[in-house]
Amino acid sequence: NAGVTQTPKFQVLKTGQSMTLQCAQDMNHNSMYWYRQDPGMGLRLIYYSASEGTTDKGEVPNGYNVSRLNKREFSLRLESAAPSQTSVYFCASSERGETSSYNSPLHFGNGTRLTVT
Amino acid sequence: GIQVEQSPPDLILQEGANSTLRCNFSDSVNNLQWFHQNPWGQLINLFYIPSGTKQNGRLSATTVATERYSLLYISSSQTTDSGVYFCAVDKKGNYQLIWGAGTKLIIKP
């Protein structure tokens, strides 16, 4: 099993450009997440999706949009990239279902290193 | 909100040594997870441990929820254990995990 797969691994953008980060999981997980990791700031949740067709804002959603395309795929879009969005982006998934009150173990992809100049 | 504190912030050990990493949290939580981020940036889930003790090879973890702390034990350290160890907690029903700042572990050969 591949687990959680993110593409691309690296990306350089100029200010104002747009791009979509792709994420797919093959574990039949219900929930999917997008995090960013900045030096000294730890992991911060951007958006999450509790089930296919639903998305919710996390701690730092401004400047991002997401799409839960189907149960497997959850994409993150930067419409107009800014230098402040330079970061490492991680996608994650868990078994947790929408009706569950309990989180399940979180499994991460290998990350996308994004630089905005 | 809940505060999560990890200690020590940095730890340098020789290969073969044992270590204990601590995670304290300021309020009752629904769950706690330990993660290892290796030097290449990969994040691996080590333990999902709301309470009690679990073991996986040379690693074990204990969470004492009533006293609001968790410990991660690494025995007979290897250079591949190097990286940053994070704990993360959640309140019941909340999808957003609260992360500690991590313990950076360096194992010297």
Q: What's the oligomerization state?
A: heterodimer
* Backbone CA Rg of chain A: 13 Å
Q: Total strand count of chain A, please?
A: 11
Query: How would you describe the shape of chain B?
Result: globular
Largest sheet of chain A: 7 strands, mixed
Q: What structural class results from the helix and strand content of chain B?
A: mainly beta
* Unreliable stretches of chain B: none
Task: Determine the fraction of residues in helical runs of chain A and give it as a percent range.
Answer: under 10%
Cα radius of gyration of chain B in angstroms: 13 Å
Assess the beta-strand content of chain B as a share of residues.
over 45%
Task: Compute the number of helices of chain A.
Answer: 0
Order of helices and strands of chain B: EEEEEEEEEEE
Q: What order do the SSEs of chain A take from the amino end to the carboxyl end, as H and E?
A: EEEEEEEEEEE
